[in-house]
Amino acid sequence: MNHGKVVGAGALAILLALYVVGAVSVPPGSLRHEVQTLPLWLPIVAGFQRKDVAKWAALPCLVFWLIVMVFIWLFLLGWARIVTGHFTPTEIAMTLIIGAGSLLGLIACARWRTATRPITAAAVVVAVGVLQLLAFRLSLIPYVARR
Fold it and tell me: What gap in Å lies between CA 50 and CA 24, rounded to an integer?
């Protein structure tokens, strides 16, 4: 099994599902979702190129999106109100795809042994994690969120 391609495929599934959410959300939020997914391009490209850094770039993105999906599922089940809103059946289906892509990618990351030095791996995790949080925050700015 090629772990890089699995990591890249998991990140790509998340990206595509978020694009679908942007297309069907009311009001349409395509730009918001495009901004949110920008950091995913790093593990997608590196993963399909089978570069070791893909594992470390994917980890913060996969964890972030899995946590967001868990919060949405907790809200939909009526167990918590960390994330609230109205979710269409299509958006709910996309949360399942995003969660599955996150889990698939995380399992591949756990099994993937890389030659990346620990300091490099840590730097990539932190840098991409900051990028993912920043991208999400920028996507909430009214100008971006409404386009």
Answer: 33
